[in-house]
Amino acid sequence: LINLAATNLPNLVTGTHPLDSFSPLPPALAPPLPPLSPPLQQPQMMQPGYQDPRMMAPPMGYVQPPQPYSQPPPSFQQPPMMQPGYGQPQMGGGYQMAPLSTGRRKALLVGINYKGSTAELRGCINDVRNVKAFLLEKGFVDSPQTMVVLTDDQMDRSRMPTRANMMAAMKWLVTGAASGDSLFFHFSGHGSQVRDTNGDEDDGFDETILPVDFQSAGQIVDDEIHDTVVKAVPLGCRLTAVFDSCHSGTAMDLPYIYDANGMIEGPGGPTMQPPAQQRIDPLQMGLGMMMGGLGGPQALSSLLGGGRMHKKQGRTSRANAAQVISAKATQGDVLMFSGCRDDQTSVDATIAGNATGAMSFAFMETIRKFPSISYQQMLVHMRDIMRGRFKQIVQLSSSHPMDMNQPFAI
Questions:
Q1: Residue 357: which of 180, 28, 122, 94 has the closest Cα?
Q2: Residue 338 to residue 78: CA distance in whole angstroms
Q3: Neighbours of 195 (CB within 10 A)
Q4: How far apart are CA 164 and CA 31, in angstroms?
Q5: pLDDT of residue 266
Q6: Which residue from 342, 339, 338, 335 is spatially nearest to 404, judged by alpha carbons?
Q7: Which end of the chain is more exposed for a tag (fewer CB within 10 A), N or C?
Q8: Phi and psi of 298, rounded to 5°?
Q9: Phi, psi dihedrals of residue 124, rounded to the nearest 5°
């Protein structure tokens, strides 16, 4: 996030954790916290004189990619059939998500204000508190076995959002996950970009999130999040992620990004549509707007337009697109709402007198007003809330093709 008005705390070493609880090293075994000096520096994207990576000359040997695809790449394959009654392709390529049958739920909530730094934020801890209250209303339980909250206002160093604690907590979130479980991951804080080192980013940059000790311990790269969390979500398990940070469009490296019509952008784009019987009817939408229904007066425009495609949404070679999809697609149901495209920043704002991340506010506002709403409708309404106030465009992505007309559920 960026603060419209205006990072780093010391590192904490964490130990291993058991199957069903998050337990870093106790404070007595942790190293002492050094003083907050010298003055803290801003994150990479905020340093004076920093050159925007997108304005740099492309790396040697870079070839301008072709225009976005209208057909899938030759080697593109749909995810394999799953279980009877689950994973069956809908008309146009959307897959039904598995039912949340076990009732087991786990949540990881991370909010970092970077207090005392030159890049201090104000609303991230509030975001976590609001999301936690929402999850408790939905049946999540606040216990060490089911919910971990990392914020930089806590006295308990084992609950500080250091890099080590965040990585341990991400592993805890998916440990023991099984079909029918529901997992939730919320991050509100700074995001940035670093140079790609493994060739899976066609613009040459990975997206990152910044732990409170990023200056000494480093940033957390999207490849790490994908390998640690996304790949560990098993078939039939659902992980819902909400990332309210700058450059967060593909912060989990999910290969499928959806437009406001519920269709997949990028490789295979126009051929991957929601079931015909569930597609948006402009006339019905217009009548709904006249009746004060979902979407408001700008809903139709958001359905017709939804924002530009970014780096993993079609601006890559067909061969490389197929390789990325093959490497990043998983069978677990992973969905992420992110605050902006990879080439945008997210805003730390004040709304109705309360400090909050703009995207976190839009997420909570949509859920409160429309408790029974589809994923596609959520994306439309969140964008409507943001439009006219902020330039960032909320994104929705997934680990494999899914039917976004299904009701939102956690």
A1: 122
A2: 25
A3: 11
A4: 13
A5: 54
A6: 335
A7: C
A8: -105, 5
A9: -70, -40
- Those residues with Cβ within 8 angstroms of residue 293's Cβ, 6 or more apart along the chain or in another chain: none
CA distances 29 to 25, 114, 374, Å, are 6, 24, 47
Q: What confidence category does residue 336 fall into, taking pLDDT thresholds of 50, 70 and 90?
A: very high
Assign 10 to helix, strand or coil.
coil
* pLDDT category of residue 45 using cuts at 50, 70 and 90: very low
- Give the separation between CA 331 and CA 333, rounded to whole angstroms: 6
Q: How many helices (H) and strands (E) does the chain have?
A: 9, 14
Q: Are 364 and 249 in contact (CB under 8 A)?
A: no
Annotate 38-74 with b (16+ C-beta within 10 A) or e (fewer).
eebbbbbbbeeeeeebeeeeeeeeeeebeeebeebbe
Could you give the CA distance from residue 158 to residue 224 in angstroms, rounded to a whole number? 21
Which residues are known to be catalytic? 190, 246
> pTM of the entire structure?
0.70
Q: CA-to-CA distance for 201 and 145, rounded, in angstroms?
A: 36
End-to-end CA distance of the chain: 25
Torsion of CA 369, 274, 399, 184, to 10 degrees: 20
Is residue 22 very low, low, confident or very high in pLDDT (cuts 50, 70, 90)? low
Among the listed residues 394, 388, 357, the one whose alpha carbon sits nearest the alpha carbon of residue 376: 394
Beta-bridged to residue 244, according to DSSP, are 188
**Residue 169, exposed/middle/buried by CB under 10 A (0-12, 13-18, 19+)?**
buried
Contact 307, 393 (CB under 8 A): yes
Q: What Rg value do the Cα atoms of the chain yield, rounded?
A: 21
> Per-residue pLDDT tens for 354-395?
899 999 999 999 999 998 999 999 999 999 999 988 999 999
Per residue in 48-105, pLDDT (tens digit) is: 444 443 344 444 544 443 333 333 334 434 444 333 334 444 433 467 788 898 889 9
CA distance 21 to 34: 28
Q: What is the pLDDT of residue 23?
A: 59
The confidence score (pLDDT) of residue 319 equals 59
